[in-house]
Amino acid sequence: MATNKEDSKKETNRLKKGKTVEGEFVEKASSKKEKPSTAKKKKETQNKKSTTTKTTKSKSKNSSKKVTSKEIKAKKETEEKQVKKKKGKQLEPEVKEEAKPEVAEVLLESKTIEEKVTSRPKAYFFPRVLAYLIDIIIVTVLSTLFISVVPENKNYTAYLTEYQKLQSSFLEGNMDSDEYVNKTAEIVYDIDYNNVLPMIMEIVVLILYFIVFQFYNKGQTIGKRLLRIRVVSEDDGEVSMNQYILRSFIIPSIISKMLIIALVLFMGREYYYYASFTVQGIQTVLIIVSIFMVMYSNTGRGLHDRLAKTKVIMVD
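The chain above was modelled as a monomer; its predicted structure follows.
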């Protein structure tokens, strides 16, 4: 019995050892099987790393190539610019040397023109009077041509013949001064009232000739051009339209003619003669003062020139 028990124990121990050996063998085999799979994984990771490094290297190479090409282009452009600058610097003194005499000539021409303008003498009295007489003749011819288009006013001609008879009778001594003044006051009003339209046309001709035409003809009428004189500003510049208007108020007495028309239309018969007489008297005084100023002043500027800040000079 005792032997049987010992035998059974030995067998159980053997079985246990066998199982343990088998387990060790199985573990070894499984470990051997696992080792190649991990190796493969390591290889794969290494391959991936190598591929990534290659791609990064290739990208860096490409980028370096691109950078180098851009740098080369930039260098070429800078070199070309430097070459152009050098050429320009070489050409600039030549151009300046060529331009210097031209600029000097232009400056000299401008100086000579200024000296001519400033050194031009004033227009003397007689050329100005002759020029004004020529202009007045032209204006009267033009105004008569315009007035001839208008139909004749029979009342105007009748009053005019009556006025002429009145003057002849007074000169012959058939009438005293008081009667002459009273009758002429009535007749003058009737004459001017029936002559309003021709007076307006005359003012239009004066404005067109002495203001508009003279402005666009650079300070010269036909009479001034013939006698080689010209109206300029007091600073030797061009004359504006407003300055021509101010000059024409006094000579050729546009303002007095306009006032007479206003008096005829808006003033009664009793006061018109005396009002028109005073207007014409003031106008004649202004003309006489302007004539003396042109004759005896150092600048040769009349009252109308001083009012408009102009002067009249001789022209070549």
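The first strand starts at residue 229 and ends at 233.
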